[in-house]
Amino acid sequence: MPLVLVVDGAVFFVAALMNAGVHVPLGIITLRFSVPVWQAGVGEVVIGLVLVAAGLTRRRWLSWTAFALSIAGIAFGLSSHRVVGAARDVHVVLVPLAVVVMVLLLGPKVRATWRRATRPTWERSAAIAGVLAVVAFATASVIHAGVTIPLGFATIRDPFPGAVIPEAVIAVVLAIGAGSILISRPEGRATAFATTAFAVLGTVFGLTITVPRGLAGDIAYHIGILVLLLVILGMLFPSRQRGDDQGRSR
């Protein structure tokens, strides 16, 4: 993980240089931002420093802080109309790096939790479904930021800047909920229930905007993710927890 954090930080530093107007030669190509934004460069320097510090010190709390800052920076960049061309491409590259960092941060705790298998089956299933919801919201955020995703038989493209940050926020919130179960936090179930309820409210609000737009794909996505979130809520419902507790006490 330290190496990934340092690499992630290096990418932010490169982005900061280009936002300062610096051209970065890579032999066959020279990277430059057509519209440098120095304010964004300052933020990228801060994020890069925290990422590198986390990688060098190997402190988990600092790693999580760096991860959260990087997510915020990526979401802000992708939602900005000033981030175009190479700048947008750099932000797209940062997305999978952030996913790798999250997986590495959760990895040790998740493996330990699954080896102990102390969580009820329904609870662990809810956590897995929560991870799927995180991926769905993160993907939607990237697509609404204007990123085109070719699938061979079709190309997904639906720029809608107003949805980028809300979907990114919901993805982060859901990740906190799912992660709290996967790392076996005592309050994990309650946290996941609260974060999922938050996501349900956000999705319902999204439907009130999506339905008037009349885009079948968007409407289907919102309905599908709403169903998934409601299923997760059902898995985490307090009455089920009482039943699990009674079953373990017998």
The coarse silhouette is globular
CA(first)-CA(last) distance: 42 Å
Which percent range describes the beta-strand content?
Answer: under 5%
Q: Give the SSE order as H and E letters.
A: HEEHHHHEEHHHH
Transmembrane segments: 36-54, 61-78, 90-107, 128-151, 163-183, 190-213, 219-238
Keywords: Membrane, Transmembrane, Transmembrane helix
Task: Set down the secondary structure blueprint.
Blueprint (H helix, E strand, L loop, with lengths): L1 H18 L4 E2 L4 E2 L6 H20 L2 H20 L6 H31 L4 H24 L4 E2 L4 E2 L4 H22 L5 H26 L2 H21 L1 H12 L1
Antiparallel strand pairs: 1-2, 3-4
What does this structure look like?
This protein has 250 residues and is mostly helical. 78% of the residues lie in helices and 3% in strands. The longest helix is centred in the middle third of the chain and has 31 residues, at 86-116. It is globular. The model has no long low-confidence stretch (mean pLDDT 79).
